């Protein structure tokens, strides 16, 4: 664009041309528009136009894309967020997180939140069994919440959620699973410790009956998330950790459709064949045991 607001070869930017398409669109933005909104729209338009030009996209293909996005929106409701699923499966959720959560070495890494987090989970005392439908293999989860110096963080809130042994979250099976099955909040004690009983997580398919499922099928991609437990750990003055722990023996660890696996998040799940300890925990032997410490980084502005 020159000083008269003209495009390539002096053409006026009032009218649309393929060559000046980006500049023509940008030129319509009011000069007093919010600078960040201007910047975001300008960059998105630049890359979108570049993609359309590189692909020589046909009108039929563009209508298909619009239909795909329309159906993605129509699939969304209070318990189904197909746009989050689209962001996750395109790697965008993990990328935004990676850019903004570059924590000091040794801190627990974040991973994808996913669509099944529900705020205000029921609070339990440490030791509670959150496996309300009793399905799956029993597991005891123990750990501590620590700061960068290895000092305990007392009073941290640990929110936990996972799918049941049939591969569904409670919110996907309202009226089938007990409400808040495998979903809970705990508080770390004076030593930063927490513990609870649950079911060993299993791999499960992300919802595949919508546009995102169609896309993954067309690309020959797996829809199975490797087995994991979700955690959100928060404490005043610390960067909230949104993460999972993964079982090490899952065949889908390297095929996660949402790219959520990080090597540092793969835990040791030990099988324990001890009838006395099992009885003490209210389990039958053998059962699984996993220990996991969360190391929190200070909040960037703390
Ligand atoms: C989950 O682990 O709950 C999840 C994450 C991303 C997409 C779908 C499910
Ligand atoms: Fe999950």
Automatic annotation (TrEMBL):
GO aspect biological process, one term: catechol-containing compound metabolic process
Keywords: Dioxygenase, Iron, Metal-binding, Oxidoreductase
SUPFAM superfamilies: Aromatic compound dioxygenase (SSF49482)
InterPro entries: Catechol_dOase_N (IPR007535), Intradiol_dOase_C (IPR000627), Intradiol_dOase_core (IPR015889), Intradiol_RC_Dioxygenase (IPR050770)
UniProt cross-references to Pfam families, sorted A to Z: Dioxygenase_C, Dioxygenase_N
Domain of life where this protein originates: Bacteria
UniProt GO MF annotations: catechol 1,2-dioxygenase activity; ferric iron binding
Keyword Cytoplasm: no
Gene3D superfamilies assigned to the protein according to its UniProt record, in alphabetical order: Aromatic compound dioxygenase (2.60.130.10)
Signal sequence interval, chain numbering: none
Residue intervals of the Intradiol ring-cleavage dioxygenases domain: 141-169
Nuclease keyword on record: no
Cofactor: Fe(3+)
Family: Belongs to the intradiol ring-cleavage dioxygenase family.
Protein name, UniProt field: Hydroxyquinol 1,2-dioxygenase
Origin species: Roseiarcus fermentans
């Amino acid at each position: 664009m020159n000083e008269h607001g003209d495009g390539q070869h002096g053409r006026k930017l009032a009218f649309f041309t393929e060559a000046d398409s980006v500049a023509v669109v940008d030129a319509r933005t009011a000069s007093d528009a919010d600078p960040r909104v201007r910047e975001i729209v300008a960059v998105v338009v630049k890359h979108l136009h570049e993609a359309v030009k590189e692909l020589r996209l046909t009108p039929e293909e563009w209508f298909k894309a619009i239909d795909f996005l329309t159906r993605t929106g129509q699939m969304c409701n209070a318990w189904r967020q197909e746009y989050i699923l689209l962001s996750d499966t395109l790697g965008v959720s993990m990328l935004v997180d990676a850019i903004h959560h570059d924590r000091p070495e040794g801190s627990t890494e974040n991973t994808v939140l996913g669509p099944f987090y529900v705020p205000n989970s029921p609070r339990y005392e440490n030791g509670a069994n959150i496996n309300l439908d009793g399905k799956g293999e029993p597991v005891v989860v123990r750990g501590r919440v620590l700061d960068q110096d290895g000092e305990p963080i007392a009073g941290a809130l640990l929110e936990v959620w996972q799918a049941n042994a049939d591969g569904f979250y409670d919110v996907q099976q309202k009226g089938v699973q007990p409400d808040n099955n495998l979903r809970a909040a705990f508080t770390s004690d004076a030593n930063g410790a927490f513990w609870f009983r649950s079911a060993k997580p299993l791999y499960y398919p992300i919802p595949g009956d919508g546009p995102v499922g169609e896309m993954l099928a067309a690309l020959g991609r797996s829809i199975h998330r490797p087995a994991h437990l979700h955690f959100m750990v928060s404490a005043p003055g610390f960067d909230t950790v949104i993460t999972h722990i993964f079982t090490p023996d899952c065949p889908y660890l390297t095929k996660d459709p949402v790219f959520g696996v990080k090597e540092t998040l793969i835990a040791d799940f030990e099988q324990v064949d001890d009838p006395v300890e099992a009885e003490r925990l209210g389990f039958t032997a053998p059962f699984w045991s996993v220990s996991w410490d969360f190391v929190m980084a200070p909040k960037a502005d703390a």
